[in-house]
Amino acid sequence: xxxxxxxxxxxxxHGAGLPVPAPATPGSAGMDISSADAGSLAPGERRxxxxxxxxxxxxxxxxxxxxxxxxxxxxxxxxxxxxxxxDSDYRGELMVALVNLGTTVFEVTHGMRIGQLxxxxxxxxxxxxxxxxPPTDRGTGGFGSTGH
Length: 148
What we know:
single chain, Deoxyuridine 5'-Triphosphate Nucleotidohydrolase, Chain A, mainly beta, 4-stranded antiparallel beta sheet, 1 helix
């Protein structure tokens, strides 16, 4: 098993007392992040919530912010751009865009777990124009063309 990724972070003043992002269980892929803000989300409303910290992602990696399944299932709270990508050269505060797809107002409280972080390797890619693409059995079929 590879050693854990070393993520440097700074805590901002409004993040004082909030937990450091961490997995909820030893087998969790995501690290829970908490809100440094409190506020209401009306049905259909989108809003940014601050986390109270900034991170340095190593080159060659990205940080994805993903929704928490319990908030999504129980309350319809998710991310409008899931997964949100944080690039390795960004040094500002992490913020989570939440949207309320539920039918009632949802209250986000200071310290509430509102998302999870997953780190992923990013492979460099370049585009090379060619006269035609190599054939496959599937070809150009998409959007349900495989029958599933």
